[in-house]
Design goal:
The structure is a homodimer. By secondary structure, the first copy, chain A, is an alpha/beta fold. The first copy, chain A, has a domain at about 75-110 and about 235-445: 3-Layer(aba) Sandwich (Rossmann fold). Helices cover about 40% and strands about 15% of the residues of chain A. Chain A has helices at about 45, 50-60, 70-75, 85-95, 115-125, 140-150, 160-165, 170-175, 190-200, 205-220, 235-240, 240-250, 270-285, 300-305, 345-355, 365-380, 385-405, 420-430, 440-445, and strands at about 5, 15-20, 65, 85, 100-105, 130-135, 155-160, 180-185, 225, 260-265, 290-295, 305-310, 320-325, 360, 410-415. In chain A, the strands form four sheets. A seven-stranded mixed beta sheet of chain A has the order 1-4-5-15-10-11-14, with helices on both faces. Chain A has a four-stranded parallel beta sheet with strand order 8-7-6-9, sandwiched between helices. In chain A, strand 12 (about 305-310) and strand 13 form a beta hairpin. In chain A, helix 12 crosses helix 13 (about 270-285). Chain A starts with 5 loop residues before the first strand and ends in an 8-residue tail after the last helix. The interface between A and B is large, with 52 and 52 residues.
């Protein structure tokens, strides 16, 4: 009898609603503060940045929010994404654990990011916006926004973190193939970029700085709005199609996870797989554990402070309560560019602080080791970001082996590594290293946290 | 009402048998001749090259050949592949045609090639072979063989056509991530390679030459066999999972194609989508047209001769009757590296010669124009090879528009273009050109055809 390897779903089985974790949180989210006044923002404060459809979702507490038909029609270019049982990896590890993964790498841009790029493009389009400014770390988000932009006839300008711009020329070309305009950040196109270039012409950049540039671009042009690929509530909301599909697919495998794992940069990928399971846990008292995995070199959730902070280095974006390493924190140039952010999604942060989820960090070399084991047993070459989740899943499976007990593990494979092959080459050549952030550097960054008086 | 965009199938709906077109051909295939004696080869002649499981399939006339369970278990890592209706492209073209495509780019290696790499690795494994030598043009086949090799614990050595080796470093790194050993061809590792390097150290190489190197490697080592990614009967056979799935998926869309299109290099991709439809046409008298599309710069089917010829430049491989531009033909370095072969699958050749299928050629620039239209409406960035099929599909859709009549078009998207982004960059920069092969060059190559006395 041939083994079941995966569960696909048909078009009509794709979720018709996004799931909003806010409805099931015992405490409401902390307010979002205006970067200039330090007072809670109103929807009007956000209109220079976002279209109203997005702002409404950002502040909504409704459990289910309908996905517009136009958005579903585009999501169906790759969704529902398949859910796999990693039988090859299980065999290699000789573990009693069952390892499952959701493959978000099947989207045209190669990651989970289009799940929110498409609705963001849609809400901008119906609001009459002509152009979107955004930033990108690893290139996954920028690609996704260019992809979504071309489908809705919007211009897209991408500020790409310098270290990724240099390491990933193919990502840039991909964005250009979809008609996007791409510059390295820091760029000479904005005040924020010029200021950093003046101090350090060789700056590798950071996600925080690239956000500043994109926000500045957006607020300075009437026809332009900003789009963020992670962190914010509406972004986490849009990603919940992942977890909702996964719940249905796990059912078709007749299993329920003991642990659900996602890598964590800004928080959208983790939220996408975890929030639907967490909401179910809160409502129905299941025992599932939710684990966010970040790099040891950028330990926002595991070593940062839970505090009000800016989302960007130039202090143009709203102040939110989150785990943070400080807005001026410049993480080392590890290859998981999508995980190099100083902050974290406020929703993830609050849920971590209140004990609903767990966080752990893994070293770069251990994540690549896991990536290669995965590639050679399951075939798919993972993105370095996703490899953090694979590492944690393997560790869970090895623990189960030590205990001699079955454990059902589900992780989110956020994307493929087709545009990260140079990182693999460096790994095989022994040119990568682990990095532990000195305590002093964390303390220094945190001294700059804004004073907030609520 | 939300539109149906695609049909996926579940694991258990994957075909359990390969379909062999030989069973439905009115005339038997021409004999395969020994390159040394010019006499028909026996299975024993082929044992230095292939394991017996493969040889049996090469000469089989049975209509249905069972796919081993171990092979199906691996194919399910990505199969069944989804079939899409290209609604975005239809809208752009404003055509009454319905355009469908099968997406073979969802495999871990990114193309249809693993469909045959996996069974070839399996039959070698059960025959006790330890190592496989093979060649690759665009890198799709080499990647696929490395992918399949690692899953079955086989070493893989890949001779990669120099022009692709230089243009596609990421493809090499991908093969290495799967544990393969890759050298540019011509290489100093074989007699065939050294001979060409002596004449022309800057040689860009060709698929014909790389085949010579891999064959020489295989026959010179007891533990090694050869694997070919196209042309031969067993390769075309393994690809028929594509067309069989597509027939079922078109049924689920309640449509039947008027025309089925595949790009053509060695013939395996075209065979995969076309042969199940052609067998059905022969048995049940349908009206479907089958169209193979090749580059204008390497016009094997449209300007070559139907003759006995060698499959490789060094005359080590068997002589087969096929459309050919001559085994010494060196095609220009167009970016669709997978379509740079002097010959064609004997089965495709015979079926073309007997009027069962059609062939046409398209220019490089027109294929890239089609690729960008496709990427900006359907999201997926196609491989340059696949773009030839897209071009032909668009032309069919525009003809339908001119006629004002519906036409149901199905093409095979053989792979994605994630490792071809530099080609797109050159296209956008105006650095690509069309190329028309001079008649004199074709005549010259054909003067070298072997004399065959049957």
């Amino acid at each position: 009898m041939s083994e079941k390897r995966k569960v696909c779903l048909e078009d009509h089985e794709m979720p018709k609603f996004w799931y909003n974790i806010v409805a099931d949180m015992p405490n409401p989210p902390h307010p979002v503060l205006h970067p200039g006044t330090g007072k809670p923002v109103t929807p009007d404060d956000l209109t220079p940045l976002f279209p109203m459809g997005v702002i409404e979702q950002e502040v909504s507490a409704e459990r289910h929010i309908e996905i517009p038909r136009e958005v579903r029609d585009i999501l169906k270019l790759w969704r529902p994404s398949p859910l796999f049982r990693a039988r090859g990896l299980e065999k290699l590890l000789d573990t009693p654990a069952h390892i499952y993964f959701k493959n978000e790498g099947v989207s045209p841009a190669g990651s989970h990011k289009p799940n929110t790029a498409v609705p963001q493009a849609f809400y901008n389009k119906i609001a009459g916006v002509k152009r979107i400014a955004t930033e990108t770390g690893a290139g996954q988000w920028g690609s996704s926004m260019c992809f979504a932009g071309t489908l809705f006839g919007l211009e897209v300008k991408v500020y790409m973190v310098r270290v990724s711009y240099d390491q990933k020329p193919y990502r840039r070309m991909m964005m250009e193939t979809w008609g996007g305009a791409v510059v390295p950040s820091p760029s000479p196109d904005t005040e924020a970029g010029r200021a950093v270039l003046a101090r350090d012409p060789e700056s590798m950049g950071s996600l925080g700085l690239a956000i500043s540039e994109a926000v500045e671009d957006a607020v300075s042009r009437e026809d332009t709005r900003y789009a963020l690929g992670s962190v914010l509530n509406h972004v986490c909301l849009h990603q919940t199609v992942i977890g909702q599909e996964a719940m249905l697919q796990m059912e078709r495998f007749d299993e329920f996870p003991d642990v659900v794992i996602g890598c964590h940069g800004g928080g959208s990928n983790f939220s996408g797989i975890a929030f639907p399971f967490l909401g179910d846990k809160i409502r129905n008292k299941t025992n599932v554990r939710l684990v966010a995995v970040e790099p040891f070199s950028c330990p926002t959730l595991t070593r940062g402070s839970f505090a009000f902070d800016y989302g960007d280095t130039a202090h143009l974006s709203p102040i939110v309560k989150m785990y943070t390493l400080g807005a001026s924190f410049m993480p080392p140039g590890i290859h998981a560019g999508g995980l190099r952010y100083h902050g974290a999604a406020p929703l993830v942060s609050q849920l971590l602080n209140e004990g609903f989820i767990e966080a752990r960090s893994v070293h770069q070399l251990e994540s690549f080791e896991a990536a290669v084991q995965f590639a050679r047993t399951e075939g798919i070459i993972p993105a370095p970001e996703s490899s953090h989740a694979i590492r944690a899943a393997i560790d869970e499976a090895l623990e189960a082996k030590k205990e001699g007990k079955k454990r059902v593990i589900l992780f989110n494979l956020s994307g493929h590594g087709h545009f990260d092959m140079t990182s693999y080459e460096k790994y095989f050549a022994g040119q990568l290293a682990n990095y532990v952030l000195p305590e002093a550097e964390i303390e220094k960054a945190l001294q700059e946290l804004p004073k907030v008086d609520l």
